[in-house]
Amino acid sequence: MNKTQILVICRHQEILQTIIRLVNSNPDWECTGANTDQQAIDAFSEIAFDLVLLGSGIEPSSEGNLITFFRNCRPQVSIVQHYGGGSGLLSAEIYQGLGQKAS
Amino acid sequence: MAQTVLHRAETRGHASHGWLNSYHTFSFANYYNPERMNFGALRVLNDDTVDAGMGFGTHPHDNMEIISIPLEGDLEHKDSMNNVAVIKNGDIQAMSAGTGIYHSEYNKDRQHRVKFLQIWVYPDKRNVEPRYDQITLKAEDRHNKLQQILSPNPDDQGVWIHQNAWFHLGRFDKGVSANYKIKGKGNGVYVFVLSGDVKINDQVLYTRDGFGIWDTDAFTITAESDAEFLLMEVSMSF
C-alpha cells in the first residue's frame, strides 16, 4: 500500500526536522520538508502530495502564493495549518486534513 | 437560544506513559476524535499528572498560547528565551509561542507528583514575538467569587494572551451561585470542574467534567457541593 505523502513547510529548521521525524514515525505516512518557498514548489512539482502542512514563520504573502500554486497544480490537495511545532496536535491535524478534501 | 456541549470526565482521551498520566479533553497526541477537536479557540485541555523527578524534555512550540496551571505541586519551566521559573501551585503561567520557542517542564520534587492543567488557545495573531507571563494568585480572591486569571489585556487582572479570551477560577461553598456575563461578542465559555459538583443553568456537572456554552449572553453557575471550577471564555470563531 502506498504511503500518504505529506509536505511540511516551516521556516524554523529545527522544528521542521522535529515535524518530519514525528510524521515519519507513522508507518503509513511519508514526509518531505521544505524551508523555502522554492523548495516547497520543487517538491510539489515532483511528488503527488496528499496533504500540505503549513508550519511556523511563513510570511502571509508567501503563504498566499504557495496555496495558489498548490491549488492550481492539484486542486484536491488538502492544505492545513500546523500549530505547535511538532506538538501533540500534529496527528489530529493530519487525520482531519486527510478526511477533508480541498474545498 | 444557548447551545451547549457536555464532555463527561470519563469520555476524555487517556494516555498513561508510566511517569505521565494524561487526560485529554480534546484530540491530542494519540487520542484522535474528530468530534472532539476544539471548543472555539480552545484547542487543548490536558489534565496531567507527572511523577516525582520526571517531566517533558525540551521541545518546540509555535503559534499557540499555552497556559499552565499547577493544581498540586510545582512545575519547573525553562525556555529558549533563557527564562527559568518555577510555576508553583497557586500560580498561572501564559506563554505565547509565536514564531517559535523551545521549552521544558519538569517536576523537580523528588518525592511528590505534580498535577497541572495545560491549556492551549489558538492566538488571534500569528507569528508574534514569543513571550511569557506568570503571576501568583490569591486563593481568597476566588472563594465564593469569580477570580479573573487571564484576559486579552496586559493592564487587566491576571496574565494576558493574544486572544479575545478570559479565564476565571472559582472555589464556591455549597449553595453559592454566580452569574457570568460573556465579555466578548461571539464568545463561548468552556467550564471545567476541578472538584465537586456544579450546575450551569440546569446542567449538573461533576469532577473533571467539561461543559461548553455559547450563543448566550450569560449563565448561572451554582455549587451543588463545595466545588472548584475553571471558566474559559474564548472566541467561537478564529
Per-chain topology:
The complex is a heterodimer of chains A (103) and B (238).
Chain A: E1 4-9, H1 13-24, E2 29-34, H2 37-46, E3 51-54, H3 60-73, E4 78-81, H4 90-99
Parallel strand pairs in A: 1-2, 1-3, 3-4
Helix pairs in contact in A: 2-3
Chain B: E1 3-7, E2 13-16, E3 20-24, E4 42-50, E5 55-61, E6 65-72, E7 75-79, E8 84-87, E9 91-96, E10 101-106, E11 114-121, E12 131-136, E13 147-151, E14 159-160, E15 166-172, E16 177-181, E17 187-195, E18 198-200, E19 203-205, E20 210-214, E21 218-223, E22 227-235
Parallel strand pairs in B: 13-14
Antiparallel strand pairs in B: 1-20, 2-3, 3-4, 4-11, 5-10, 6-9, 6-11, 7-8, 7-10, 9-12, 13-15, 15-22, 16-21, 17-20, 17-22, 18-19, 18-21
| Spatial order of the strands forming the largest sheet of chain A | 2-1-3-4
- The count of DSSP E runs of length 2 or more, i.e. the number of strands of chain B, is 22
Principal-axes geometry of chain A comes out as globular
Principal-axis shape of chain B: globular
Largest sheet of chain A: 4 strands, parallel
Distance between the termini of chain A: 26 Å
Commentary on this structure:
The complex is a heterodimer of chains A (103) and B (238). With 103 residues, chain A is α/β, with parallel strands linked by helices. Chain A has one domain: 3-Layer(aba) Sandwich (Rossmann fold), CATH 3.40.50.2300. Chain A contains four helices and four strands; from the N terminus they run E-H-E-H-E-H-E-H. Chain A has a four-stranded parallel sheet with strand order 2-1-3-4. Chain A starts with a strand and ends with a helix. The mean pLDDT of chain A is 90. In chain B, 0% of the residues lie in helices and 53% in strands. Chain B is built from no helices and 22 strands. In chain B, the strands form four sheets. Chain B has a seven-stranded mixed sheet with strand order 1-20-17-22-15-13-14, with no helix packed on it. Chain B has a seven-stranded antiparallel sheet with strand order 2-3-4-11-6-9-12, with no helix packed on it. Chain B is globular. In chain B, 44% of the residues are buried.
